[in-house]
Design goal:
Layout: E1 2-8, H1 11-18, E2 32-34, E3 37-39, E4 42-44, E5 46-49, E6 58-64, H2 78-83, E7 87-91, H3 111-126, E8 131-139, H4 141-152, E9 160-163, H5 169-177, E10 188-189, E11 192-193, H6 197-200, H7 207-211, E12 217-223, H8 232-240, E13 243-249, H9 258-274
Parallel strand pairs: 1-13, 6-7, 6-8, 8-9, 9-12, 12-13
Antiparallel strand pairs: 2-5, 3-4, 5-7, 10-11
Helix pairs in contact: 1-9, 3-4
């Protein structure tokens, strides 16, 4: 059983890795194929980015955005993965935001509806003729969804990366409403109004226990000043995963800047090498 907890105590420690990754544009301007998927009667808008010059199947990563987000939340990461020869599939979860390019209603969305959509995406992308092997990555709520899906599709992926996963969601519901019967039709989650099922669908779940059922390699990142999801959730998950590394970023918040992404990407490259993706 291998577990590693790394705490970056200062910017100076992070700078040692900075020069290992070139600086990229904050926007993904690379050529892409608009690649939409049907899932449970809904259309999922997606984009498939393939490394320039690729003539055959490539390793790929599916990037899952967080609460209220869209595929664009992955823009900082796409060119960096492409530079490593890794294709990227990015998409909008159905109902994943008040306004995005996929079907579905924001008030009918939950971690569990998103998990079902991600399972369908994994099945589709893993069978794509230009995909040779697959890794998952998810941000915040997308990290929880990624973790749940990984546990059910472990045979189709080599590993997963979780960025500040929102393992707190069921606890948020318990703290706000006390019992499932007390959940209103229009509860609040983070900064927005959601539907009742947002909390009801995970009320009886220990999200951390469910996510850590995945037994293969996991890399996690979390900021110690995260105002939305306390980093203690990731610490606990790291302790429960069979094979996991957690990198805590001192003073890091919820969502990483381009400078931070540049600093952590060498760790991501090392992880992809370790799991055999590249």
């Amino acid at each position: 059983m291998r577990k590693t907890l790394v705490l970056f105590l200062s910017v100076i420690l992070l700078l040692s890795a900075f020069s290992a990754v070139p600086v990229f544009s904050a926007c993904a301007e690379d050529a892409f194929e608009e690649y939409c998927i049907e899932s449970n009667g809904m259309r999922i808008y997606g984009r498939l980015y393939i490394p320039e010059g690729a003539e055959g199947p490539c390793p790929a990563v599916i990037l899952s955005h967080g609460f209220g987000g869209t595929w664009e939340d992955s823009s900082l990461y796409i060119p960096r993965f492409l530079a490593c020869g890794v294709s990227c599939y990015v998409f909008d979860f159905p109902g994943g935001a008040a306004k995005n390019q996929s079907d579905g209603s924001f008030t009918d969305m939950s971690v569990m509806t998103e998990k079902e959509h991600l399972l369908n995406i994994i099945d589709n992308i893993s069978a794509h003729p230009m995909v040779s092997s697959l890794m998952l990555a998810g941000f915040s709520q997308g990290g929880v969804v990624t973790g749940l899906a990984a546990a059910e599709r472990a045979d189709k992926i080599l590993g997963e990366i979780l960025f500040y996963p929102a393992l707190c969601i069921s606890d948020m519901g318990h703290e706000a409403y006390g019992s499932v019967e007390n959940i209103p039709e229009d509860p609040k989650a983070f900064w927005q109004t959601v539907g009742r099922r947002y909390y009801a669908d995970v009320w009886d779940m220990d999200l951390t226990a469910s996510v850590t059922a995945y037994e293969d390699q996991v890399l996690m990142f979390h900021g110690t000043n995260d105002p939305a999801v306390h980093h203690s959730y990731s610490v606990r998950a790291c302790e429960l995963f069979k094979h996991s590394n957690l990198i805590l970023l001192s003073r890091g918040t919820h969502g990483f800047s381009e400078k931070t992404v540049n600093r952590i990407f060498p760790n991501i490259i090392t992880f992809m090498e370790q799991i055999g993706l590249i």
